[in-house]
Amino acid sequence: MKILAFESSCDETAVAVVEDGRRVLSDVIASQVATHAEFGGVVPEIASRKHVECIAALAEEALRQAGCTRQDIDAVAVTYAPGLIGAVLVGLNFAKSVAYGLGVPLIPVHHIRGHIAANYIAFPELEPPFLALAISGGNTMIVDVRSYTEMHILGATRDDAAGECFDKAARVLGLPYPGGRPMDELAQKSAGGVYKLPHAHVDGAELDMSFSGLKTAVVNLAHHARQVGEPLDEAALARDFTEAVSGALVPRVVRALELTGHTRVAAAGGVAANSFIRADLERACAERGCTLYLPPLKLCGDNGAMIGAQGYYEYLAGNTAGMELNAYATRDIDE
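RE: above sequence
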């Protein structure tokens, strides 16, 4: 079964052709990073307009690279939530028109389910059940993946997502947007241990997280040093910040393993590309004798292939939609 998949939840327009949920025939992406870099973050209206400009051409290119015609497509999958509402609407409405024109099923896919499904592409042997750590610019959560389409949130951030905090910390340190990779590279230049940063706990919800205090602490440290003329060890601050984020994530993953009895963990999302978090996850899983699945860096960020992969399993579960399907800026993974 060949699925034409669309992803446009933020600042990447992505279209892919995926066969039977595991084989990627094509995966083309138009990134807007250079456009938004001068603003230090994504401007929603600009992102939406850029999606409009390129999505049709990307769809044609995805078919060409896959060696497919329009008649070879059996279904259309699309991100319908969560994300920047204008951006999501562009991809959704285009996908609707394609599905209607081709007379094939329309499959709605939750963006975070798609990130988790990227592991099915990278690891053909991986099947549910397992534990997933989904960490991106807009979402941070620990998910009990009970089946391909049945998922339950065990813990999540109560405020900022981990990826958002990386971007804000990078900005205050004068690093370019997006901040994930520059922060990683800067952190590698220091052993850290210079700055004491907060570690938040949520009473009554041991697997939930909070990153707003950590973000504020980094901003205040940097601003105070500059205002009073004190030296700021930027590499050490990047390292201490990164280890604080990892220190909030990894122990909770370990605790979730204890509570669920799972022996396999899959990481997902753009922040899963961070070298320190990957290393800490590898160490923690090795100590527990658990199997860890870390997707390659190209599958950590937003892409169409992950939507096509999850779309296949949504289709098998009967989760299709009509032309009345709407887009949502927020939507729980288990709704």
